[in-house]
Amino acid sequence: SLLTDPRSLAHQNPSPPRGDPQIAPSSAPSSPLFQPSPSLTLQLAPPSPHPATPFSRAAMAASNQDALIAELQRKVAELETTVKQREMQYYAARDSRAMVCHTGDPCFPEGGIPASYAKTIIQDYHHMDSNERLNTSSYVNVVFEPEEAAVAQLGMGINIADQTVYPVTFKVHDHVVNMMANLWHCPPSDVFNEMGVHAGAGTVGSTEACLLAGLALKFRWRRWYAAKHNLSHDEVRKVYPNIVMSDMYQAAWEKLFKYMDIEPRLCKSSYKSMILDPSEAEKLIDDKTIGVVCIMGNHYSGHYDPVEEVNEMLTRVNKEKGFQVGIHVDGASGGFVAPFQPEMHDVKWDFRSENVLSISASGHKFGESVCGTGWVVWRQREDLSEHVAISVTYLGGNADSYTLNFSRPASGILVQFYKILRLGRYGYTSKVANQMQTTIAIRNGLRSMKLNGKDRFVLLDDGDSGCLPVVTAMLNPALNLPYDDIDLQHAIADEHWYVSGYSMQYHCPMAEEITPLFTDIDGEQTMFRIVVKSNLTMEMGISLVEVIGRAVAWLDQHIGDDEDAPAAQPSITIKDDRAVSGGKMKGGAPSLKFRRTTTAAPGGPDFGTRTSLGFARMSRQGSGAFRTKHGHQAC
User: Fold this and answer.
1) Which of 34, 366, 476, 560 could make an S-S bridge to 109, C-beta 3.0–4.6 Å?
2) Cα separation, 389 vs 378, whole angstroms
3) For the whole model, what pTM was predicted?
4) Hey, CA dihedral for 338, 339, 344, 346, is it positive or negative?
5) Pairing of strands 242-246, 289-295
6) By three-state DSSP, how is residue 154 classified?
């Protein structure tokens, strides 16, 4: 009634008390977005220092009533306008004029906005990003089915830390751990025979899984080292342990080095092989070594480390020197690829090698989960996972927690369960085969590009089998081109594809300086990588090769001095020689042959001036830290 007839306030309070009510000024930001809905905020004015006469009190009351009525009428008008605005489409409303993130004075909003407006704002910001489906730089899965999204939403309301509250959901967690252990040939342990679940855990990603595995190795070593040297608990904690791995490691391991105080001992590799050399690793092992990390699919080139050879070396070293050094397999990407490659079935890269103590993997990469998900499985609980287990009783029961973080939604676990049920071994095998065929097509396309009779690209990956579905290459140094692979990255981006280019150096965590990645090529040399995820179909792969062909042709024509420009421009066409019969492809991957000219010929189309190369040149000078210090990219 106050809003309908503001004069009712006057009728109800003909003689206001000392300290007349007034409208408080609003402190909301001037922007129309996030303004609180108009409301009545009243406060009492301070009492007058002199008693008012009956006449003056009546006059003041009338005056205040008129002012209050006018203010209320203004508020009602504002409210009516706001209601009309909020009923409009977002782009016709005043709220669409507001700057949300692009403001010099960010603050927590005073009021809310309609749900549809909030969603539209977020969607608009998303559309200003790169197209995630055309992002070949990252290993992270970006496609999902509506049913998978519904499962993820279901898990958002479940805190998986409350095992006693959600025992059935946690049973699903344990079931997925057992399926991963089965996939990686983990032998039954005493705990499995007793509890019905292998030693393992679902995590928020493979970074957490690697940290847990590294901690278990550290505490296992600490117990062994204290017994060997007759040290107390306090004394052994002063000893600085180390861990051995290739310098092709992923950024997650730097967190282990720094957070868990472990010395990294890194084996340098060749750009021609990009794997851990067991003989070089042996030179770095001593009685302070907690373990050796073998990478099943390094993120640079997709090579698998030779786990079997490292296992044989450790068996010999442990026997000769009385050590107990074991292996952790970092299967962040390969853990969901190698088990589904026929050529890897007889390779003992997993728990079939006796020194493999733990394996980790990312569910949100080639495990195809849409949520951040990781998995770690230990060979046994004794002297391994028991070192990182925490007993939780305050939630109404007694349960072990392995993860670094307690509270987290069950979405990742449920989505991984969905994907395993959805695909099964047959589906994962078929998916990996599709990805490998697409990598062959892209590789053939790059291999067929020539310039002045020489190969345009040098391929650096591990070939067509026994590796991740990754294509890694560099512009041929023998061509002495005036541009590099990072310039190529930016030229490709003009057609909306994102391909990562980076230099062959990294920020060494021990020396705290920029260090060449390989022993046999300069660190300033650049390369690029294409990750073939499940959504990168054969047709899209062929399209990407065409884009690369157009990009190098444009670079040839526009970069460098005229006298240094290549004499001949490449011409490309793509011919798909596939013959399809009965739903099967004959002859494997398509053959890519390049004939169609893509550069601007006399009288032909004008490519115009591209801004990306100006940005590329600037980025090479101004943001070299991204290419060097952060050379180990978080994928």
Assistant:
1) 34
2) 12
3) 0.78
4) positive
5) parallel
6) helix
The residue with tokens 């051995």 is 244
- Tokens representing 32? 């129309």
Report which residue type is found at 349. W
Phi, psi angles (nearest 5°) of residue 302 = 85, 10
Q: How far apart are CA 45 and CA 58, in angstroms?
A: 17
- Residue 288 CA to residue 243 CA, distance in Å, equals 8
Helix 167-183 to helix 411-448 angle, to the nearest 10 degrees? 30
Half-sphere exposure of 407 (CA within 13 A, CB side): 3
Q: Are 439 and 199 in contact (CB under 8 A)?
A: no
Q: How far apart are CA 31 and CA 104, in angstroms?
A: 13
Residues 184, 356: contact at Cβ < 8 Å? no
Helix (H, G, I), strand (E, B) or coil at 567: coil
Residues 477, 491: contact at Cβ < 8 Å? no
Pick the closest to residue 247 from 270, 226, 224 (CA basis): 270
**Pair 237, 409: CB distance under 8 Å:** no
Residue type, 262: I
pLDDT at position 83, please?
78
> Cβ(510)–Cβ(455) under 8 Å?
no
| Per-residue buried b or exposed e for 7-21, using 16+ beta carbons within 10 Å of the residue's own CB | eebbeeeeebeeebb
- Give percent of the chain with pLDDT exceeding 70: 77
Closest Cα to residue 533, out of 129, 134, 127?
A: 134
Q: Model confidence over 493-544: pLDDT tens digits?
A: 999 999 999 999 988 887 788 999 999 999 999 999 999 999 999 999 999 9
Q: Measure the CA–CA gap between 95 and 3, rounded to whole angstroms.
A: 24
φ/ψ of residue 538, rounded to 5: -60, -45
Determine the Cα–Cα distance for residues 303 and 89; give it in Å rounded to an integer: 52
Query: Is 95 in contact with 85 (CB distance < 8 Å)?
Result: yes
Structure tokens at 533: 């995820």
Q: Which residues of 331-343 are buried (b: 16+ CB within 10 A; e: fewer)?
A: bbbbbbbbbbbee
CA distance 323 to 74: 83
Query: pLDDT (tens digit, 9 = 90+) per residue, 579-620?
Result: 323 333 333 333 333 333 333 333 333 333 333 343 333 333
Find residue 473's DSSP bridge partners. 459, 528
Distance CA 197, CA 167 (A): 14
For residues 48-85, one letter each, b for 16 or more C-beta atoms within 10 angstroms of the residue's C-beta and e for the rest, the string is: eeeeeeeeebeeebeebbeebbeebeebeeeeeebeee
Cα–Cα distance for residue pair 243/253, rounded to 1 Å: 10
Q: Using alpha carbons, select from 200, 209, 150, 210 the residue that is nearest to residue 175.
A: 200
Q: Out of 258-267, 386-395, 404-413, give the one with best mean pLDDT.
A: 258-267
Strands 289-295 and 326-331: parallel
Structure tokens given for 443: 């590789």
Q: Could you write out the DSSP letters of every residue in 451-508?
A: ETTEESEEE-S--SSSS-SEEEEEE-GGG--SS-HHHHHHHHHTTT-B-EEEESEEEE
Radius of gyration of the chain (CA): 32
Q: Which helix (H) or strand (E) holds 293?
A: strand 289-295
Lowest mean per-residue pLDDT among 66-70, 425-429, 474-478: 66-70
CA dihedral 316, 318, 321, 325 (to 10 degrees): 140
